[in-house]
Design goal:
CATH superfamily of the largest domain: Glycosyl hydrolase domain, family 43
CATH architecture of the largest domain: 5 Propeller
CATH topology of the largest domain: Tachylectin-2, Chain A
Oligomer: single chain
């Protein structure tokens, strides 16, 4: 944040300019807590903390392994943890999340930093998505959820069901409380969040699609409806497309705020913060327009000006000085202990893993972070270990397609290579040259449009050499592109011959600043 902006106490959107999909957030005391979808990534369900709603720290992952554990031992792109909800009830933090192929799960913690309980399945079934609980004034509890047409064959409707207050079982019959097919122009109604205020039941829910829709609010005097509705946030003339689902949060001073996401394609679902006010009994979000509607603000006074130290995103660089992986890292599938070692001496060792078709999208043991939404540079030192021909390691920009730069063991020595892989295709080599030895520095530079250049240098020099071809990042399945580290061995390599790779510190800059 510039000195001028600090003096004016302003923040700018997005507040989290990276892939934090489907955010939900709450305030407990002076602390704000935010969670997001994680899909097939493990550990999953990232937990972020803030004191001012704009500067966030990634403090934990609530889900060490995605259940069912054996099912997610392989990458299941687009499955896993969809849009979750976070609540605080009777002194306990509660996460309710959907797996569209298995059902709706619940886990709890006394402290959001953990430990979190093992998840249990509250409501089994396919196509149940985007759940949110509400504990009513009379002690009864309800759950609202949406539907995934790809699994259930129905969508564009919201369902409420009564559950026991411990969220262990269903105690009533589900009812459709909003049918989007009956509302003119509505399509893909989803992502509901259920609240109660001044005797009204409120459902905040987006419609119209992730990249092209709008935010709607429904209200009723009964949790079962009938519900009336208004559009409260739309793109209008702003660059913030499809302002999508999120969370209504209040600040300690009583002001109201709305966190939502914007789909930025290869950079994922980035998080915005909008002011919210009440007009004629309805919430109005963002900059006021006509008929109770609003549009996203790009800049606004801070919600809690004295709480933070300038607008900041979670840390990305890692010196591997601790003997555990930092919370910022995740795998493409449930990890096994033999995938890696972090001795705490500034290095990370990845053991080479075998995938059936040498496709990195099918290899769970790729250690990743989200691609930042601003120009970024990633550097690390890598040493190839192991003598089996075909053993390889490197730095990858991973999505539905991917590109990687790194080292490959050949019968005659070690090659430095740049390769591209697409789903179902054999990797294509863009560039190849002899490496002087088994250790190199690698660099990945990604521009604002997603264009990427891989570079290398010898550890004893300062000069970087660009590899032959630029490549444009490709988004993943429901997520943005990711930057990752990997080590792989060809199919058939005996376990004791697979070797691996040693990575040095990972340094990241975003928009020219250390991150």
């Amino acid at each position: 944040m510039t000195d001028e902006r600090q003096a004016m106490a302003l923040y700018s959107n997005p507040i989290l300019d990276a892939d934090w999909p489907d955010p939900d957030a709450i305030r407990v005391g002076a602390d704000f807590w935010l969670i997001a979808s994680s899909f097939n990534r493990a550990p999953g369900l990232p937990v972020l903390h803030s004191r001012d709603l704009v500067s966030w720290e990634h403090v934990a992952n609530a889900l060490p392994h995605v259940p069912p554990v054996e099912h997610y031992a392989l990458p299941r792109h687009g499955s896993g943890v969809w849009a979750p909800s976070l609540r605080h009830h009777d002194g306990v933090f509660v996460i309710v999340y959907p797996d569209p192929d298995h059902g709706i799960y619940v886990l709890t913690a006394a402290d959001p930093r953990g430990p979190w309980s093992e998840p249990w399945c509250l409501l089994p079934g396919r196509g149940l998505i985007d759940p949110c609980p509400l504990w009513d004034d009379d002690g009864r509890a309800y759950l609202v959820h949406g539907w995934a047409g790809s699994r259930a064959g129905i969508k564009n409707r919201l369902t409420v069901v009564e559950v026991d207050p411990g969220l262990r079982q269903v105690v009533g019959s589900p009812r459709t409380v909003v049918d989007g097919d009956e509302l003119p122009g509505f399509r893909t109604l989803e992502g509901p969040k259920l609240y109660k205020r001044d005797g009204w039941y409120w459902i905040f829910a987006p419609a119209g699609g992730v990249a092209t829709g709008w935010q709607t609010v429904f209200r009723s005097r009964s949790v079962w409806g009938p519900y009336e509705h208004r559009t409260v946030l739309e793109q209008d003339t702003t660059p913030v497309n499809g302002p999508h689902q999120g969370a209504w949060v209040d600040a300690p001073d009583g002001s109201d705020w709305f966190l939502h996401f914007q789909d930025r394609g290869v950079f994922g679902r980035v998080v915005h913060l909008q002011p919210m006010r009440w007009e004629e009994g309805w919430p109005q979000v963002g900059e006021p327009l006509r008929d109770g509607r609003g549009r996203p603000v790009l800049e606004h006074p801070l919600p809690v000006p004295a709480a933070g130290d300038g607008q900041q995103e979670p840390v990305r660089s890692d010196d591997f000085a601790a003997p555990v992986l930092a919370t910022r890292w995740h795998w493409q599938a449930n990890p096994r202990p033999d995938w890696y070692e972090v001795p705490g001496d500034g290095t990370l060792r990845l053991r080479a893993q075998v995938s059936a078709r040498s496709d990195l999208r099918e290899q769970g043991a790729v250690l990743c972070q989200q691609l930042p939404g601003q120009p970024s540079t990633w550097t690390t030192r890598v040493t190839l270990q192991g003598d089996a021909p075909g053993t390889r390691c490197g730095l990858v920009l991973l999505g539905r397609e991917y590109a990687w730069a790194g080292l490959v063991r050949k019968p005659t020595g070690i090659d430095l290579t740049l390769r591209h892989g697409a789903v179902g295709n054999i990797e294509e080599s863009f560039a190849r040259t002899s490496a002087p030895d088994g250790t190199l520095d690698l660099r990945l530079t990604v521009e604002a449009d997603g264009a990427a250049i891989f570079s290398w240098r010898s550890p004893d020099t300062e000069t970087w050499h660009d590899l032959a071809r630029a490549w444009t990042a490709v988004e993943g399945h429901w997520i943005g592109a990711e930057v990752g580290l990997f080590a792989a061995a060809p199919p058939g390599t005996p376990v004791d011959e697979r070797g691996g790779a040693l990575f040095g510190p990972v340094r990241v800059t975003v928009a020219g600043k250390d991150a």
